[in-house]
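New to this. Help decode both lines:
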Amino acid sequence: MNVTSRVSASDREQLVHILAAKEAAVTVPAAVPDLGQLYHATRERLVGLLAELDEADLATRVPACPAWPGESVPAWSAGLG
């Protein structure tokens, strides 16, 4: 005896409607963002901001990572630390 033979016809019909509604609710984005391009743009922006800092700024401790000098935070973010 399989599972479907133990389910009533009305229950099967209700299940079909539920599954159809769930399928209709799934949306696929029109365009998937280019993650490489986003990473590159973010990296360029960060490099530009860091270029404006002097040595004192780079040595400043940051609240999010108080044990690290400021220069270590972007290096860690870029995978260099």
